Amino acid sequence: MTYFRHKKGVFKHQKGFARRRVAFVMLLVSALLITAIVASTALRASPPTSAAVTPLNVPTLIDSRTQNGPIVIDIKEGEHAFYPGVKSKTSGYNGGYLGPTIKMYKGESTDISFTNHLDEPTNIHGHGLHVVGKIDGGPQNKILPGETWNVTIPVSQQASTNWYHPHLKGSTAKQVHSGLAGFYLIEDGHSLSLGLPNTYGIDDIPLVIQDRNFVDGKMTPYPAGNMPEDLREDTLVVNGTINPYTMVPKSFVRLRLLNGSNARSYEFYLEGEQPFYKIATEGGLLPSPVEITTLKMAPGERNDIVVDMSVIENQKVLARFLPMSYNGFNAALIPFSESQPVLELRADGSLEALASELPTQLNTITPYLEKDVEVERVFELDDMSINGQQMNMKVINHESKLGQLEKWTIDSGRHPFHMHGTSFLILSMNGNPPAPEDQGWKDTIYPNGTAEILLKFDYEAPEQWPYMYHCHILEHEDMGMMGQFTVK
Ligand SMILES: [Cu+2]
């Protein structure tokens, strides 16, 4: 088995069958496309309504302000019951699957001590953090079995929803799939003064969305041997629970959505296409809440949304499984899955309604101006490489200057693009200005075409500890769809 990577719309096939297979697929496309559209339409009309029976698993909260000494995180193999009573072999941080949510504050430092109890190297990347290369946790930064990585994170960025996960070249996909992922939440004085829902697990709920396969209730382990082109599985898993519910106050409820899947993109919506509010992108709060009815998210992206639970008893959050590209040709090549439940919110009048109003002003974002751009770079993602090059640990692909405004044109095709060390603002998406809900700070983007972004780097990343840019389909990243750069 080999992987054929010379065309967009990559698929797996046997050597020697390329031409015949392509012709066969081309013949199938129109029929499948029609089927897919019909299926999609039908699914939109009838979302899943099966009652949720499992209480939502909410990761343990570790608040950095309550710690005496470093936060201790043990990285280890374990077990986790996705379905009640059926245990799967998994990995986790301080537990069987996923890890604690670590809350940090702007202007303060957080000490964390990560010990690797696995029988293979791992590392910890702070996805979304604005920190120097050495703390960022790129592939150079290995934690060998038995070793401890002590890190002090100086938090200088605004309130935002970020996450930590392994980032070793070649084993990121497998390790994240096994359960290694957790939230870093950052708050600041402003975010805490707004009156947004922020009671953890009650009206401020982190949700990591993943897809997994199960046989007899047990999670299928990551495929051994040949890595799949990209791993898309059939069952939606939310914080390690399937079809969960949670009790919430009769008020506004904040959901911090993280697409922590290896390769799948989703479109989130409420049952009946009820409106909800998007209040934050990856790097911080939006200027104002933006009312939307659907929200697409690629791997690595985070968005905070607010659902009004003041007048309804029950609200289901659902997700459509998106094809490889949001639109077009590839749609027919990937089996369409039905919409699946993310979370059932059940209003409980006995819980104190903490956030009865949603502020109309959330944040001030001073836009970067295109006229101030000093350097332009282009990133073409194709053929499992970026600008025709695959990741080479010994090659620095470019050098950025501290504080210099850069414009990056990202011709990403079907690949979500992420860079380390900073947040960017979108200048254009496929030739259009960003929609209001996309006019926030981001670090991961899936334009499904071409985007222009503006960004600058405020922290150093020398040759020993460079920053990465890469496709956030983890299999693609592991196969080399990644580059590295310094900031000085
Ligand atoms: Cu990719």
Give an overview in words.
InterPro entries: Cu-oxidase-like_N (IPR011707), Cu-oxidase_C (IPR011706), Cu-oxidase_fam (IPR045087), Cu_oxidase_Cu_BS (IPR002355), Cupredoxin (IPR008972). There is one protein chain. The protein is mainly beta. Among the domains are: 2-45, no CATH class; 370-487, Cupredoxins -  blue copper proteins (Immunoglobulin-like, Sandwich). 10% of the residues lie in helices and 39% in strands. The chain contains 5 helices and 35 strands. The longest helix is centred in the first third of the chain and has 28 residues, at 18-45. The chain is globular. 48% of the residues are buried. Residues 1-47 and 327-335 have low confidence and may be disordered. The structure holds copper (II) ion (CU). Copper (II) ion is lined by residues 415, 471, 473, 476, 481.
Give the SSE layout.
Layout: E1 2-4, E2 11-13, H1 18-45, E3 54-55, E4 61-63, E5 71-83, E6 86-93, E7 101-105, E8 109-116, E9 125-127, H2 133-136, E10 148-154, E11 160-165, H3 172-178, E12 182-187, H4 189-193, E13 204-212, E14 214-215, E15 218-219, E16 235-238, E17 244-248, E18 252-259, E19 265-270, E20 276-281, E21 284-292, E22 294-297, E23 302-308, E24 314-322, E25 340-347, E26 375-382, E27 385-386, E28 398-400, E29 406-411, E30 417-419, E31 425-429, E32 444-445, E33 450-455, E34 467-471, H5 474-478, E35 482-487
Parallel strand pairs: 3-17, 4-7, 5-8, 7-12, 13-18, 17-25, 26-29, 28-35
Antiparallel strand pairs: 1-2, 5-6, 8-10, 9-11, 11-12, 13-16, 14-15, 18-23, 19-22, 19-24, 20-21, 20-23, 24-25, 26-27, 29-33, 30-32, 30-34, 31-33, 34-35
